[in-house]
Amino acid sequence: MNLADTNLADTTRAWIARVEAKLDAVLPAADQPPRGLHEAMRYAVLGGGKRIRPLLVYATGLSLGAPVTRLDAPAAAIELMHAFSLVHDDLPAMDDDDLRRGRPTTHKAFDEATAILAADAMQPLAFNVLAADADLQVADATRLALIRLLADACGSLGMTGGQSIDLSSEGQQLNAQQLEHMYKLKTGCLLEASVLAGAHVAAADAATMAKLRRYIDNLGLAFQIRDDILDIEGATEVIGKQQGADIQRDKATWPALFGIDAAKQKSRELLHTALHEIESLGPAAEPLREIADYMVSRRL
Amino acid sequence: MNLADTNLADTTRAWIARVEAKLDAVLPAADQPPRGLHEAMRYAVLGGGKRIRPLLVYATGLSLGAPVTRLDAPAAAIELMHAFSLVHDDLPAMDDDDLRRGRPTTHKAFDEATAILAADAMQPLAFNVLAADADLQVADATRLALIRLLADACGSLGMTGGQSIDLSSEGQQLNAQQLEHMYKLKTGCLLEASVLAGAHVAAADAATMAKLRRYIDNLGLAFQIRDDILDIEGATEVIGKQQGADIQRDKATWPALFGIDAAKQKSRELLHTALHEIESLGPAAEPLREIADYMVSRRL
Predict the structure, then answer these.
(1) In this predicted model, what pLDDT tens digit does every residue of B171-205 receive, in sequence order?
(2) Which residues on B lie below 8 Å from A160 (Cβ)?
(3) Residue B30 and residue B21: Cα distance in Å, rounded?
(4) ipTM of the complex
(5) Which pTM was predicted?
(6) How far from chain centre, in Å, is Cα A278?
(7) Under 8 Å between Cβ of A142 and A220
(8) Alpha carbons A151 and A169: distance in angstroms, whole number
(9) How far is A112 from chain B, CA to nearest CA, in Å?
(10) What is the C-alpha separation between A20 and A26, in angstroms, rounded?
(11) A177: Cβ–Cβ under 8 A, 6 or more apart, which residues?
(12) How far apart are CA B273 and CA B116, in angstroms?
């Protein structure tokens, strides 16, 4: 599959449709008890979103020759972990956000206890998908590698640790290195896991894995800086959350530290480096290039 | 290993020491950043507790001939999931408890955001232990079976679903069947997973698994009823949480429904049935018998 054969928007739409079909299939039905809990899980997971992490799984796996049917399960598992983190990050005790993707956050649409539990239940579901999904036709050792990858990316030395640092850094002046470290944990680890999951399913060799790791490390930071820029420049109706929410909370961000022009420049440089890292993967890796452009040029 | 060879208290102490050593080893050090998060994780996991689930892993595994060194990882993984659920259940939005095991609950000792995140990080850690622990010398297929077992026990159709039903049933009159269903999900599923994890490590056959499932289904309900009786009869200093907390919240419990004498009688009958289910496992299964007595006769 080559993105050059078709329109990027069509391709991403098709991949998003695939992962959403898998998510719909693995999530318990809304009328299965306990209903409130399952409704909340489906509300949080199936209510839209950019699906960047699944797109990275598909782009990587297909660039390296994996069958697309084997990519649905890791894409869904990673998106479940992302959705879990969003629900908890939005809670009153954390970022206290009322809006997400233009809709009430899960604890607003349901209640706080239901939101906490709905997200809690997404974690075992994600690991179960990797351990048991029938379409994920890979060796047991590969399933275990995927589980370790996801667990490392989401634990206290990954995404959850990043959210902890983010909260404790409010009102503090982080330097660039501390900020990059926070970004890396909070967002970068799961983005990296998305790319490496696609690579594991494709049975990529160690050299390719290393290139992909450098690709996503650069791209991940560019993506996060883009997010911060959109938080300043975007209007609420476009990005679906309150504009300037980070600045209101006095959160450390790249534009806050260096100004918006320097942030845009940095984002472009990182994209350039990311693309350079995968040059040797040849024309087959076109999906990885197009997704990179998409992630850094997006307007929402 | 036969509990008849030694004193039950010595045996349980030795098993508790084993699982606590493994938990200490797999938890990040308190001085590893993010420090607050890791301190909270260690506070919540290493701050005592009956360790009933690890005891069930050891009792089952050793009854069926598994090497004890292979039981530490599943015992620790299951206890991490139990600890995660306690931290979230104690939150203000849930049971709003200030005391647990005679100490401030995690959100009281730290803060709410840290407690939420500390528990969130225990889930990936638990799955990682099952996927990667070097002392767990079993086939990849067995690791995956353990992961599925834990994920099923803790998801929306298990422990987390049980907590959801428990919260939504406050102030409602459940009948015995609804109450048993809630108990089964909230507590029974993870107890069953503990026994079956020991059985998986010991490579037990399907007939043995079926016996063990009936054993723990009966024992689990007896254990939960015992918990409810202690909530009424126990003093705060003994059980480490406010006495009568369930009744204050108008929670559905067995003693509330049938009276305390009927509850005690039911608990004894369930223990008897549990022991009957494993009669055919012979003298080697003595640890399972002693643990059963311990779980139902305990005073805290």
Answers:
(1) 788 888 999 999 999 999 999 999 999 999 999 99
(2) 37, 117, 120-121, 124
(3) 15
(4) 0.94
(5) 0.94
(6) 20
(7) no
(8) 24
(9) 6
(10) 10
(11) none
(12) 39
Gyration radius of chain B's alpha carbons: 18
What's residue B244's pLDDT?
57
- Give the domains, in start order, of chain B with CATH numbers: 3-294 (1.10.600.10)
- Name the residue type at position A218: N
User: A19-34: buried (b, 16+ CB within 10 Å) or exposed (e) per residue?
Assistant: bbebbeebbbeeeeeb
The mean pLDDT of A216-225, rounded to a whole number, is 96
State how far the Cα of B208 lies from the Cα of B223, in Å rounded to an integer: 22
Average predicted confidence (pLDDT) for chain A: 92
What is the count of residue pairs from A and B with beta carbons less than 8 Å apart?
157
* A129's tokens: 């998908």
A interface mutation test: which of B26, B37, B136 has the most A CBs within 10 A? B37
Cα dihedral B110, B112, B113, B118 sign: positive
Among A88, A125, A144, the residue with its CB nearest the CB of B140 is A144
Residue A15 tokens read as 């991949």
Shortest distance between the Cα of A209 and any Cα of chain B, in A, equals 20
User: Which residue has 């959100």 as its token pair?
Assistant: B107
